[in-house]
Amino acid sequence: MAQITANQERELRDAFNLFDTDHSGKISKLELKKVLQALNIKASDDELQKLLQKMDTDNSGEIDYNEFKKVMSESFFKKYSKQDLEAAFKKFDADNNGFITTHELSHILSRMGRHISQNDVNAMIKSLDSSGDGKISLDEFCKLFD
């Protein structure tokens, strides 16, 4: 497994907790499907099953945090090309205006089954918004991956 920093460990734990909508400590096939749907990633049941099997190394039928961490630390923290990051950004920027707003972030989180308070969504945006304009630009989004 790739070495990750304490900050990256927290980011992975936060991401895992977002995906684990029933707070069972494991990501089920249904939860994985909801995440992909929220990101407008179309996957057939067969593709979904293959993804689950790739991550589920203990064959329990669900992804626990350590399995999630292993896969994500090997891929999530690699250096992404500008094109990769732009494509990911566009998944969140629903109106294609070049920014992720609190409304867009709330919408995608709710599509994932996460109903987060407006204050918490505002805090997420604020933590990334280095310009102070209340929204996330592509450059601010890309800093997540530096």
UniProtKB/TrEMBL annotation:
<feature type="domain" description="EF-hand">
    <location>
        <begin position="116"/>
        <end position="146"/>
    </location>
</feature>
<dbReference type="InterPro" id="IPR018247">
    <property type="entry name" value="EF_Hand_1_Ca_BS"/>
</dbReference>
<dbReference type="GO" id="GO:0016460">
    <property type="term" value="C:myosin II complex"/>
</dbReference>
<protein>
    <recommendedName>
        <fullName>EF-hand domain-containing protein</fullName>
    </recommendedName>
</protein>
<feature type="domain" description="EF-hand">
    <location>
        <begin position="7"/>
        <end position="42"/>
    </location>
</feature>
<dbReference type="InterPro" id="IPR011992">
    <property type="entry name" value="EF-hand-dom_pair"/>
</dbReference>
<keyword id="KW-0677">Repeat</keyword>
<keyword id="KW-0106">Calcium</keyword>
<feature type="domain" description="EF-hand">
    <location>
        <begin position="80"/>
        <end position="115"/>
    </location>
</feature>
<dbReference type="GO" id="GO:0005509">
    <property type="term" value="F:calcium ion binding"/>
</dbReference>
<dbReference type="Pfam" id="PF13499">
    <property type="entry name" value="EF-hand_7"/>
</dbReference>
<dbReference type="InterPro" id="IPR050230">
    <property type="entry name" value="CALM/Myosin/TropC-like"/>
</dbReference>
<dbReference type="InterPro" id="IPR002048">
    <property type="entry name" value="EF_hand_dom"/>
</dbReference>
<feature type="domain" description="EF-hand">
    <location>
        <begin position="43"/>
        <end position="78"/>
    </location>
</feature>
